[in-house]
Input
Amino acid sequence: MDSAGNAYVTGQFGDGELMSGLGVAVAKLSPAGVPLYEYVFGANSPGFSTDEGTGIAVDDSGNVYVVGITGGLGTPFPTTRGAIQELFAGGLSDAFVVKMDPHGNFIYSTLLGAPARTSFTPPSSAATDWMRVMRSRLMRKEMPT
Output
């Protein structure tokens, strides 16, 4: 929740049974539960993908940090230019970190993974941790804004 009482949620959308792809859903809800924005990414074009938001945090400026996992199948996960890791590493799954502005627009997105038969799912608390890391690196100009 932010200081205005808005709630933020993330998770997964789609239908794996129909091979339509599973993508990340992010929403901001007013204190009354009214959607202020809903944003989906990951499974947004032809091809099966398996992406899921597993944690979310918001900073004092209203920027949203989402962490999760992508299976690297089908549709490439959307990353921003200059990201720490722009492409899927080739393991079983990679983690992702996304920073969005208060209106739900992408500011920064990166993958975090390793090649071979590795799999990584970040804990839900990782969104708060990455919010601190990204804020620190941005202040030192180590990441694109």
Remarks:
- Residues 7-139 form one domain.
- DSSP finds one helix and seven strands in the chain.
- Confidence is low (pLDDT under 50) at residues 137-145.
- The radius of gyration is 15 Å.
